[in-house]
C-alpha cells in the first residue's frame, strides 16, 4: 500500500514510517518541519520517503496539491501541536493547528479520494474529566481539561461529523494515551526528562509524581493503528477506537521514574517541583476492550518491557550504535511477535 502520513517527522510519525517500510509499504509524508536531534533526523528518515513536503498543514492548497500528486491508498493524520503545557502558553495557535489542520486534512482526503482509508489520531485527553478513577470508553462524553485536550476534542467531534454523514467512506478515529520509546525528545514529557537527567548524572524533577497514566510502548500503539487500517481496508465499518494498555500499566509517574532509575543503575531519588506552572489530571486511563474484542489487537509488551526497550535504545545510541540500526532492530524484534 501507499500511505500518506501528516506529521511524519514527529516521534510517532517517524517510528510508524520505519515500521511501514519494514512491512514493505510505500510512505509519503507531509509535515511542518523537524528538530535537529529528533528521531526523524537521527535515522535520516528523508531517505525512506517516497514523497515528502515540509509545509504547514494549514496551507490547504499545498497539502491538496501534494496529496493529489501522491494519491495514496491510506491517509493518517498525526500533524498537531501535541504538548499539553505548550497549549497553555499558546492556546490559540494550538486550536488553529489542531482544529484547522484536521479540517484541512478531511477536506483534502475527500477531494483526492473519498474512498481512501482515513485514520485520524486524537488522544485520551479528549474525554471529559469527572474526577473519577475510572477508565474512559469510546462512548463517554468529550470535552478536554486543557487547551490541548479541548482542541483535540473539537477535532475528534469534527471527524465524527464526517463519519456520521458519510462524507468519507472509510474513516476511523484512534484515541491513545502516553507512549514511550527511543528517540523522543519532546520537551516536558516524562521519559525524555528522565533519560536526560540520568544520562547527565542528575536527579530528575517531577511535577506530579502521583499522577497515573496508561503507559504504552510506541510500537504497541502503532500496531493498534495498523490494526484499524487493516480493518478498514478489509471492508470493516468506520468507527472510534481506544488504544491503550490493560490496567497493569496504569501506574504513577513516580513508578515509571523508579523503574527507569534502576535500568540506568541510579538511585531512585527525585526532586519535586513544588510549584508546577500548570495543573494536570490526576488519573487518566483508557478502556480498550472494544479493539481487543472486535479486532483482536493486544499489547505485545508489558510496561516493564516497554520501559526497558526505551532505555535500551538510548543506551545503545549513547554507546555509539547507529540510531537507525537500533530502531530497525527493535521494530524487527517487535514484528517477530506477529501483528
Task: Please give a structural write-up.
This protein has 339 residues and is of the alpha/beta class. The chain has one domain: NAD(P)-binding Rossmann-like Domain (Rossmann fold, 3-Layer(aba) Sandwich). 43% of the residues lie in helices and 15% in strands. The strands form four sheets. A seven-stranded parallel β-sheet has the order 3-2-1-4-5-6-11, with helices on both faces. Strand 5, helix 6 and strand 6 form a beta-alpha-beta unit. The longest helix is centred in the N-terminal third of the chain and has 23 residues. The protein is globular, with a radius of gyration of 19 Å. 45% of the residues are buried. The model has no long low-confidence stretch (mean pLDDT 95).
Question: Care to give the gist of this entry?
Answer:
With about 350 residues, the protein is of the alpha/beta class. Helices cover about 45% and strands about 15% of the residues.
Layout of secondary structure:
Elements: E1 2-6, H1 11-22, E2 26-31, H2 39-42, E3 51-54, H3 60-70, E4 74-77, H4 84-89, H5 91-113, E5 117-121, H6 147-164, E6 170-176, E7 179-180, H7 190-199, E8 205-206, E9 212-214, E10 216-217, H8 218-233, E11 239-243, E12 250-252, H9 253-263, E13 271-272, H10 289-295, H11 303-318, H12 323-335
Parallel strand pairs: 1-2, 1-4, 2-3, 4-5, 5-6, 6-11, 7-10, 8-13
Antiparallel strand pairs: 9-12
Amino acid at each position: 500500500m501507499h500511505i500518506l502520513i501528516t506529521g511524519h517527522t514527529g516521534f510517532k510519525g517517524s517510528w510508524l514510517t520505519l515500521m511501514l517500510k519494514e512491512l514493505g509499504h510505500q510512505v509519503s509524508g507531509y509535515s511542518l518541519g523537524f528538530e535537529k536531534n529528533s528521531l526523524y533526523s537521527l535515522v535520516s528518515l528523508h531517505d525512506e520517503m517516497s514523497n515528502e513536503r515540509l509545509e504547514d498543514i494549514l496551507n490547504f492548497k499545498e497539502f491538496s496539491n501534494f496529496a493529489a500528486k501522491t494519491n495514496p491508498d491510506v491517509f493518517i493524520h498525526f500533524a498537531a501541536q501535541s504538548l499539553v503545557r505548550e497549549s497553555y502558553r499558546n492556546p490559540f495557535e494550538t486550536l488553529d493547528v489542531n482544529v484547522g489542520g484536521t479540517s484541512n486534512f478531511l477536506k483534502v482526503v475527500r477531494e483526492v479520494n473519498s474512498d481512501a482509508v482515513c485514520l485520524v489520531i486524537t488522544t485520551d485527553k479528549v474525554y471529559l474529566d469527572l474526577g473519577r478513577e475510572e477508565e474512559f470508553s469510546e462512548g463517554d462524553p468529550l470535552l478536554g481539561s486543557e487547551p490541548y485536550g479541548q482542541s483535540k476534542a473539537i477535532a475528534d467531534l469534527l471527524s465524527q461529523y464526517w463519519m456520521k454523514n458519510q462524507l468519507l467512506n472509510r474513516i476511523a478515529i484512534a484515541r491513545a494515551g502516553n507512549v514511550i520509546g527511543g528517540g523522543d525528545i519532546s520537551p516536558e514529557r516524562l521519559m525524555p526528562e528522565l533519560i536526560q537527567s540520568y544520562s547527565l548524572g542528575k536527579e530528575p524533577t517531577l511535577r506530579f509524581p502521583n499522577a497515573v497514566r496508561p503507559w504504552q510502548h510506541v510500537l504497541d500503539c502503532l500496531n493498534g493503528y495498523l490494526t484499524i487500517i487493516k480493518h478498514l481496508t478489509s471492508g470493516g465499518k468506520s468507527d472510534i477506537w481506544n488504544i491503550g494498555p490493560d490496567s497493569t500499566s496504569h501506574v504513577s509517574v513516580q513508578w515509571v521514574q523508579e523503574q527507569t532509575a534502576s535500568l540506568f543503575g541510579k538511585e531512585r531519588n527525585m526532586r519535586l517541583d513544588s510549584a508546577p506552572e500548570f495543573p494536570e489530571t490526576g488519573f487518566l486511563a483508557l478502556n480498550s476492550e472494544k479493539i481487543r474484542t472486535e479486532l483482536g489487537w493486544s499489547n505485545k509488551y508489558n510496561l516493564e518491557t516497554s520501559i526497558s526497550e526505551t532505555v535500551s535504545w538510548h543506551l545503545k545510541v549513547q554507546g555509539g550504535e547507529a540510531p537507525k540500526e537500533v530502531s530497525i532492530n527493535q521494530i524487527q524484534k517487535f514484528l517477530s511477535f506477529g501483528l
